[in-house]
Design a protein that fits this description.
The chain has five helices and five strands, in the order H-E-H-E-H-E-H-E-E-H. It has 271 residues and is an alpha/beta fold. A five-stranded mixed β-sheet has the order 3-2-1-4-5, with helices on both faces.
């Protein structure tokens, strides 16, 4: 299992590296379009004055044997749930992965929708399905805020639990290019109008952010499983060495006892 997880981890890392430039360009395009559109009121940008219902989206795996990978995401998701309830807000869960689904159902929490079967190798279509359901719930007023909880991949040994506000779309995403990027001062003509383009880009942004989270979680799961299986193999080897030593000592003691009994018997016959 360690070798299989290692091979899958390399593939997952390559998918993240291939996706990051697209996500960065997507942010740049959306920020530029938002600046051109000016102050606009769009459903996915609308920030509710009163948040009554929070949607929490924990992203876990479909399988276990990955150390604390699933547990730490669920622990953080339930912490977010307690904070929301303390603020007088209701909580609905939209889960990804069988581990999150089964845990939420076992605790008899409000499970609005769940998705399973693609934690190892998520496709963009999976992110689209999730994004469509979450955006529909937000626009219809079923929920007033959407929070995603997942493991961000740092290294095969380190997975960082991350809480990201998906909806409403954070204003930081519309503030423009990063400060460290060069400003070229080029004016663009937009066709159709910037507002119409932005209206098309916002759902794609939600899909892209979810897809990034799914890929990060997939890589984190393989890294956690590889580390867990390596630790399990090491622990099993140490246990085998300990038990083998105990067995050899018991065997040696038994042989010594038999020799002593034979010698004592011989002494008794010759005496």
């Amino acid at each position: 299992m360690e070798l299989v997880a290692s091979a899958r981890l390399r593939r997952a890392q390559s998918r993240i590296e291939a996706m990051r430039p697209y996500a960065d360009r997507m942010l740049e395009l959306m920020a530029g379009t938002a600046q051109a559109a000016g102050a606009v009121r769009l459903p996915l940008l609308e920030r509710r004055d009163t948040v009554q219902t929070v949607a929490i989206v924990p992203i876990t795996g479909d399988r276990g044997l990955a150390g604390a990978f699933n547990a730490q995401v669920l622990r953080r998701a339930f912490a977010e749930m307690r904070d929301a309830r303390d603020a007088g807000q209701q909580v609905r869960f939209f889960t990804s992965g069988k581990k999150a689904q089964s845990t939420v159902r076992f605790r008899r929490l409000d499970l609005a929708q769940s998705w399973t079967g693609f934690s190892d190798k998520p496709a963009y279509s999976d992110a689209q399905t999730m994004a469509h359901a979450l955006a529909e719930a937000y626009v219809s007023g079923e929920v007033d805020r959407v929070v995603v909880v997942y493991n961000a991949f740092v290294s095969p040994l380190v997975q960082k639990v991350t809480v990201s506000e998906l909806l409403p779309i954070p204003t930081e995403a519309l503030e423009g290019a990063r400060d460290d990027e060069p400003k070229h001062g080029v004016d663009f003509f937009f066709e159709p109008e910037p507002r119409q383009i932005l209206e098309r880009l916002l759902p794609v942004y939600v899909e892209t952010e979810l897809y990034r989270a799914l890929l990060e979680s997939a890589a984190s799961e393989q890294g956690a499983r590889m580390t867990a299986m390596r630790n399990a193999s090491k622990a099993a080897g140490e246990l085998i060495d300990t038990l083998t030593l105990a067995m050899n000592r018991a065997r040696q003691a038994e042989i010594t006892q038999e020799i002593l009994e034979v010698v004592a018997g011989a002494d008794a016959l010759t005496g």
